[in-house]
Amino acid sequence: MIVIAALLVAVMLAAAAAALVFRDLLSAVIASCVVSLIASILFLLLQAPDVAMAEASIGAALITAVFVIAIRRTERYEE
Amino acid sequence: MRTLTSLILLAVIAVGIGFALTEVPFGTPKTEVGGYYLEHGREETGAANTVTSVVVGYRAFDTLGEVTVLFVAALGLGAVLAAAGGAGARREVEPASLVLRTGAILLFPLLVLFGTYIFLHGHLTPGGGFQGGAVIASACLLIYLGSRERIISRVGRTVTESLSGLAFVLIGLIGLAFSAQFLSDFLPKGTLNTLFSAGVIPLIYVAVGFKVGAELGGVIDDMVKETR
């Protein structure tokens, strides 16, 4: 269990760093979606299913959608 | 220069928080109220899910505040988008692919059912009004992705939102009439772990589920419509 959690945290940190580095904002949004998704799995592993549900549906689904719609209206690439 | 300054500032803050956190023993209860909730929450509120017994039982007034915050945020977003609406050139709505369209239409009723299950069983299983409402809102998002010509009725969602918000306050006021305490439980507790138990908690969670679903669905609706 601790190995899985450590692996997930490593992927989460990598995705967070990628979200900072990416110049393509759409990729950055997807990377931050990965952060939320892994956070929700970690909440589940920490026995907080209530928080995990909220994180998965709001953090991973709705916030990503709002960002993608906003990017569609504005610039896709950061200069 | 700016980067250096912000790095130094961040380092100072990190060291400060680090020192502060070493004083707090990790994983030990800091307050006694948590233990009280775990011990008495089930029989005092009748909710089998301890998280719900805190969120809608002991701290129902805070939940009302949370719902209000969400309402104001959605209202503000709607106002800003309506004020800025029509500025961009309206693009033609291209139809979704067959796979996406079929998948969205098949999944939509299942997701709505799942969201409803989550908020109806908020006092028994993990989840509650907020989570169920968010799942229903993501079902609305799916419909926007899959079949773009369908739109949620603005009147319908506004009425749903207002009525469910009103229901929450009314439940609180009925509690006030019964025992001089806002949001106090006026219904029988019932048997623990059955659907009709926990007094007013399921009623409040149904109202919150409808409200959050209509609100977040409305946010998606506003975003999609105004930025099309």
What's the short version?
In chain A, 84% of the residues lie in helices and 0% in strands. Chain A has 79 residues and is an all-alpha fold. Chain A starts with a helix and ends in a 6-residue tail after the last helix.
Describe it.
The complex is a heterodimer of chains A (79) and B (228). Helix content of chain A is 84%, strand content 0%. In chain A, helix 2 (25-45) packs antiparallel against helix 3. The radius of gyration of chain A is 14 Å and the shape is flat. Chain A has one domain (2-73). Chain A is mostly helical. Chain B has 228 residues and is mostly helical. Chain B has one domain. Chain B is 71% helix and 0% strand. In chain B, helix 2 (33-45) packs across helix 3 and helix 3 (50-58) packs across helix 4 (60-84). Chain B is globular and about 60 Å long. The chains are: A mainly alpha (79), B mainly alpha (228). The interface between A and B is medium-sized, with 15 and 20 residues.
List keywords for this structure.
heterodimer, A: 79 residues, mainly alpha, 84% helix, flat, B: 228 residues, 8 helices
What's the topology here?
The complex is a heterodimer of chains A (79) and B (228).
Chain A: H1 2-21, H2 25-45, H3 49-73
Chain B: H1 2-22, H2 33-45, H3 50-58, H4 60-84, H5 98-120, H6 129-146, H7 154-179, H8 201-226
Helix pairs in contact in B: 2-3, 3-4, 4-8, 5-6, 5-8, 6-8, 7-8
Low-confidence stretches of chain A: none
Q: What's the total helix number of chain A?
A: 3
Number of helices of chain B: 8
How many strands, which pairing sense, and closed or not: the largest β-sheet of chain A?
none
Could you list the spans of chain B in which at least 5 consecutive residues all have pLDDT below 50?
none
Number of domains of chain B: 1
Radius of gyration of chain B, rounded?
22 Å
- The helix/strand order of chain B is HHHHHHHH
Question: SS-based structural class of chain B?
Answer: mainly alpha
Estimate the helix proportion of chain A, in percent: over 70%
Would you list the SSEs of chain A in sequence order as H and E? HHH
- Measure the end-to-end span of chain B: 41 Å
